[in-house]
Amino acid sequence: MTKITSLVTGGAGFIGSHVVKHCLALGHEVIVLDDLSGGFEDHIPAGAIFVQGSVSDENLVTALFEEYNFDYVYHLAAYAAEGLSHFIRRFNYNNNLIGSINLINESIKHKIKCFVFTSSIAVYGAGQLPMREEMVPMPEDPYGVSKYAVELDLKAAHEMFGLNYVVFRPHNVYGENQNIGDKYRNVIGIFMNQIMQGQPLTIFGDGEQTRAFSYIDDVAIPITNSVNIPEAYNQVFNIGADKPYTVNELVKVVGECFGVQPDVTHLQARNEVMHAYSDHTKAHSIFGKGSGVSLLDGIKVMAAWAEKVGARKSKEFENIEIYEKLPQGWEKKAQPEIIPA
Ligand SMILES: NC(=O)c1ccc[n+]([C@@H]2O[C@H](COP(=O)([O-])OP(=O)(O)OC[C@H]3O[C@@H](n4cnc5c(N)ncnc54)[C@H](O)[C@@H]3O)[C@@H](O)[C@H]2O)c1
Q1: Contact assessment for residue 200 and residue 265, using Cβ atoms and an 8 Å cutoff
Q2: What ligand 1 atom has the least distance to the C-alpha of 179?
């Protein structure tokens, strides 16, 4: 029997590196395409073939599809800083939308068996809660707009050319291999990085905004397995944890896992959805209920990993396109040196 070959874009990133691990466990040959803009080569599990480059590089994408006869494409590469996307609009659409279209074009031409796309609950905007798949998406920021555009393009590619796809809309995923040095996204990682550097935790606004933080296994495992579940094909799934927590509650849990009572600095509230959680009935009916890992237990595992790898220096995003209304703390400033423990 010939080996299943899968392309995992963003496979050096957080969710992608877990998807690579699970694909390898299923016996796939895995090719990772990642430009390392947000990922780390040492997060790519051994056994995968790594190609460093961008999904926006049309010639590279074409050449990869020529070289490997992909059965499946797992497309996770993106810059997912939703809040920042207002200020990096051109970059967002080039990277997250046009890059996706390069992959979809080649997937159509090469008749791959299934294209798995990680969208986001950002597509819903500030609509009714909980967010359900049958609602009409109304994204409110460029990141969400680009994700929804890719979803619509996949639907059109399916109807026109028969390309099979599975769309996942995850939210607030956390766990080992997350880039805790990205100051523009991933509040749990940001808090851990701040605690490990002895800094106060920064909260936009009063901290009463809620999110349902999702443990990585509850997202990466269904994403990986979806290609083997025909009922999942050409469907959209919310995926992740059900229970929302306030950011203030999160501070306590993260502090507890590090054995500290962190100081908190409140920054000016930014323009963000106040409450965001989604319904997962549909995903549970197809993929099962998930690991049941609690927020405390999941964060304990991540904290142990974070303490092992240590704090990460935050990189500034170099090419801000719009400065008007840029949230406090996101303006460019010198970073303190991190001295390894
Ligand atoms: N983490 C979450 O909570 C969450 C929630 C909803 C959706 N998602 C989506 O899941 C996917 C993975 O997110 P993540 O949290 O693992 O982020 P991540 O930044 O850890 O991983 C993304 C990876 O993509 C790579 N990348 C970015 N642009 C690229 C490009 N043009 N070409 C090649 N590689 C590129 C980065 O280097 C990184 O390794 C993204 O598509 C994101 O939008 C994540």
Answers
A1: yes
A2: 20
The set of residues, in sequence order, having a beta carbon less than 8 Å from that of 101 and lying 6+ positions away, is 150, 153
Write the CA distances from 104 to 25, 35, 75, 98, 169, integer angstroms. 26, 18, 10, 10, 18
Give the binding-site residues of ligand 1, using a 6 Å CB cut-off: 9-10, 12-16, 33-39, 54-56, 76-80, 95, 99, 118, 120, 170-173, 179
Asked whether the beta carbons of 77 and 9 are under 8 A apart, the reply is yes
Q: CATH number of the domain at 5-173+216-239, out of 3.30.2270.10, 3.40.50.720, 3.30.460.80, 2.40.30.20?
A: 3.40.50.720
Whole-number Å distance, alpha carbon 319 to ligand 1 midpoint, is: 18
| Cβ contact 81:181 at 8 Å | no
pLDDT value for 332: 66
Q: What is the mean pLDDT of the chain?
A: 94
Percent of the chain with pLDDT over 90: 87
